[in-house]
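User: I'm putting together a teaching handout on how multi-component assemblies are represented. Below are the sequence lines for each component of a complex, exactly as they appear in our records. Could you produce the 3D structure of the whole assembly as structure tokens, so the students can see both representations side by side? Please keep the chain order the same as the input.
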Amino acid sequence: MTDLLGDMKRTHSCIELGESHIGQDIVLMGWVQHRRDHGGVIFVDLRDRKGITQVVFDPSISETVHEKAQEIRNEYVLGIKGKVSARPADMVNARMTTGAIEVLVDELRIFSRAKTPPFQIEDRVDASETIRLQYRYLDLRRTQLKNNMIARHKTTMTVRNYLDAKGFVDIETPVLTKSTPEGARDYLVPSRVNQGDFYALPQSPQLFKQLLMVAGFDRYYQIIKCFRDEDLRADRQPEFTQIDMELSFVDEQKVMEISEGLIKAIFKNVLDVDFPEPFPSMTWAEAMERFGIDRPDLRFGLELKNVSDIVANADFKVFASVVKNGGLVKAINAKGCADFSRKQIDELTEFAAVYRAKGLAWIKIKEDQWQSPIAKFFSDDEKEALKQRLDLEPGDIVFFVADQPKITNEALGQLRNELARRLGLINDNEFKFTWITHFPMFEYDETEKRYQALHHPFTAPMESDLDKLESNPLEVNSRAYDLVLNGIEIGGGSIRIHDSELQERVLKCLGIGKEEAKEKFGFLLEALTFGAPPHGGLAFGLDRLVMLLCREDSIRSVIAFPKTQKATCLMTQAPSKAAPAQLQELAIKTVKPIE
Amino acid sequence: MTDLLGDMKRTHSCIELGESHIGQDIVLMGWVQHRRDHGGVIFVDLRDRKGITQVVFDPSISETVHEKAQEIRNEYVLGIKGKVSARPADMVNARMTTGAIEVLVDELRIFSRAKTPPFQIEDRVDASETIRLQYRYLDLRRTQLKNNMIARHKTTMTVRNYLDAKGFVDIETPVLTKSTPEGARDYLVPSRVNQGDFYALPQSPQLFKQLLMVAGFDRYYQIIKCFRDEDLRADRQPEFTQIDMELSFVDEQKVMEISEGLIKAIFKNVLDVDFPEPFPSMTWAEAMERFGIDRPDLRFGLELKNVSDIVANADFKVFASVVKNGGLVKAINAKGCADFSRKQIDELTEFAAVYRAKGLAWIKIKEDQWQSPIAKFFSDDEKEALKQRLDLEPGDIVFFVADQPKITNEALGQLRNELARRLGLINDNEFKFTWITHFPMFEYDETEKRYQALHHPFTAPMESDLDKLESNPLEVNSRAYDLVLNGIEIGGGSIRIHDSELQERVLKCLGIGKEEAKEKFGFLLEALTFGAPPHGGLAFGLDRLVMLLCREDSIRSVIAFPKTQKATCLMTQAPSKAAPAQLQELAIKTVKPIE
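Assistant: Of course. Below is the structure of the complete assembly, with chains in the same order as your input.
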């Protein structure tokens, strides 16, 4: 048996003790980080959530305690009573907060023994992620993960205090609900009371928060789990957390102003970083033009230049015909990289191919000539124009993609990010925000031969574009906005449609008829007929935001108990088989999947 | 089409304006609470979340605006621009915060029209709950429900700020997880990626919070949705919210001290009520003795008295034989109620029968005699002893239940509550708390012929009772504690087992062998072998707590979008049919239920 806590009461945490405590009797409790014997004395680094203190078992203080301390191993859980003492001058550890003192122990309780952990609880760990997920409670003991969780807590506390002060009401919306038409796949929950029916876990509380505006709550927020049954190829989780907000009687400027203040408050509280200037803002069209993608990383330059007009009549038929067919030719000048090897260029070409670019043309600018398979196709005038447009100087290499606008932009936009990574242009300690506004309302889905909402079907069109809704839907901009940080979208939202007639018009543009609309979200359409205020909102992805705050590469590092890419929990073995009786009560059965 | 928000910006809420604003130009936005025409002028009570302001459309100010205002009906959503003006002296409404002023409107925008709502948006509503749940967004416009939601928000903000200040870290635990062995029925979620397997929605984050203690987080909290697929006969919801806490290196006193401070902070912040004294505390045994149930309502007396010793040898064989067979005879003296009619007594007898009491004996104490079918069976000594024990005085009526202890206590305990309701002894504005401690560790389940955990299998036994664990389990007390308010359990918790050997002993007492334990929660048992701190915690039911704070009778009144007793959402029509393709992807199908 281990020792009981009994009447022992902790007096301090393991980070607090310093020279001012010398001579005091104190009680510490924590884990054995490290134990060493030196000259018949046992030294233990005792660790709790806050820090580490050296505690000393010296037989000259208590032989029985020293004897008992022989048993101690790493990760044992101890309670010790003792006197704070100055360390000998040559033993002072200036790198430790408590490095000037140690505790001479006169009472020891061993609350818990510990088997040798499958990996060392150290700052740097080389165990596989599989083993670390299986023993997540051990991995969470490491400073890095522990600090991530605390940063997450600080983030949410900041959100709550900031929004509370601005008059937002935290209202819980249901988890067992009806499928929301957000596009992604729902998680279903079979109903026992209503056999044959299913609840869906929410992909977002979108409709509920709009109904709360109809109910008059004016300013709502919630930090809420959302669920998407997607293939987890990217850094996604089946359940993720949103900071979800909605406001009545506001325009996009107001939503953005409050959201921006919130993000600034978080960075101030969690990282002590100030952003005195307003975040920059650009339209979606500008982002596409300059960066090729709608979430530009502004920590570096390498902007895309449209050279379609210059090459439209060039002898290089690949470029000319693309332009002729409504495509785009854009280029990036990688300054000073004219020494890129054939292998490097091939790698970049393969990279661009992932984004469907059929090729990656390039020109190296040498002192005396342009070195390139395609240089010969350009006239002197075209060369001069390219030189001006792209600021070409000796030592540069310029990359071209020529394709349909969507492919040109995405391939070159991604290439821009890749080049920045390879060239070391990214400062990991920099945070560059930008708002993106004026998104197109619709995009045309070639496969389904119909328009899709770029945001979601409840996003309002720009008031000035209302008359183009039916006649020219691709020209209609929406009142949506995204906030981008270091090339990652951390939040987005829109002003919503609050007029039931306009909502029906937009649904019709999306090919959703009255019957289907009624079936899917008739309750929202009906609510809009009982007095709905103008309203809009925004949601931030908490996991991604905290990931960026903690300078982590994966959201798994900022989630206490994440799932694998196969949506399993390696610690609890979820999901698992259900008992036959459970399925019987739900009136469902499992079937052999169709191959 | 309705009007656009455009450049109109709200300057004030509808509760703010008073005499100090007279002469100012302001903008209000809100709903039409009421409209009346008087002398060619239109008066509208404009309502927003905060309050109501009277706005006036006078043709002498603007004929076009007055003309447009003709269209206004109840629940229309308006934006108005106008000048604050003093009301004529005889029109001042002292009962309204803004009753001294009105706003003379010179610009009107109609943001949204409203059909006639299915019920009036008034403080008192006589519509059925069915129609109110269907149009929940309209019901939430009523002051009562709106204030309940705001009280809920204040409650959770208080919890977060209080616990943050005490060093608790808010950590999210998974929603898609493995079945926790809490006894109730799980909601299952079929997995698509791992076909044939199921996640369970958590009944509580019990195991995860214990793992967070093993991980060293020391103080954890979370306000979290939990799920139980129970029959909703009582005032239950499929999803409910817990304030969930766990602490390391503490005993029950510390957990109770922090929890009590939390509850006091909530009552202070939400209701401005102080509780300067510590909450009383009684053992489970005392609660059963004095009140018959473990959640006594202390707002009134009517305590139960055990008279088994007095009646053990009485000629009244019913009593005597119950005592002989290990039963209990207990009584309540309803003072001054000797004039209860036969009908009243019959009703109480029926009430007691619901709790399985086979009869309800009674004696009316008259000036000159005891009037009762059973009085004749008692000797003078027995009568004198009953008189002393029960403080019998002329005008009293005393009720007896004689049965096995569990039945006697529960029937008479419930009768005590019923008598208090009938006699008007309950002060609705009073809040009486008590802690209940020293619960039994186990109870014997006659049906399953085995011991069950009264709390849950991870609750620690009293350290002083450890040696009785195998030899006399029913005598073992646990380190569990409940907090009871006005007869309702609002929270409960325990010190947990942190020693894997002790955990296995307790599981063995419950008839859970090593294999079953490993299968169900092997990850917890394993975690306890890697260094687990002594720890304990508590969870409050947020819904019930807010219900009591708001003096509501049902938790549905403090949940924004509650479900019916059949677990359906009348507004969204959840649950509903799933598409065949969805079920196919999940490799499940619905089957005809077994009758």
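A couple of points students might notice: The domain at 300-426 of chain B is CATH 3.30.1360.30 (Gyrase A; domain 2). Chain B touches chain A through 130 residues (CB under 8 Å).
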